[in-house]
Amino acid sequence: MREELSTVISNRSAAYYDAQDYISALADAETVISLRRNWPKGHFRKAKALLGMQKTKEAAESVRLGLSFEPQNTVSFYPSPLVVVLMAFVGAPDLPQ
Length: 97
Hints:
mainly alpha, globular
């Protein structure tokens, strides 16, 4: 149940982000993290929302934390060029070329 709910809320966070409603995107991302702390996708959603709010340091920390659960995860973190830049900032391994 938690997995299904966290997926739905994660997708809603993405929709809020696309609508430039970064506060709602962040709230949903934090809900996802509370449901599934070790799922990198929630941390990715949080990082994107924080970037939308111009909170780069906090976004980088969210990326760092998400990668600590799955250091080689390229699926959750690489879809956004902004997150790729953040990953370079935090020294993430195996950045795409």
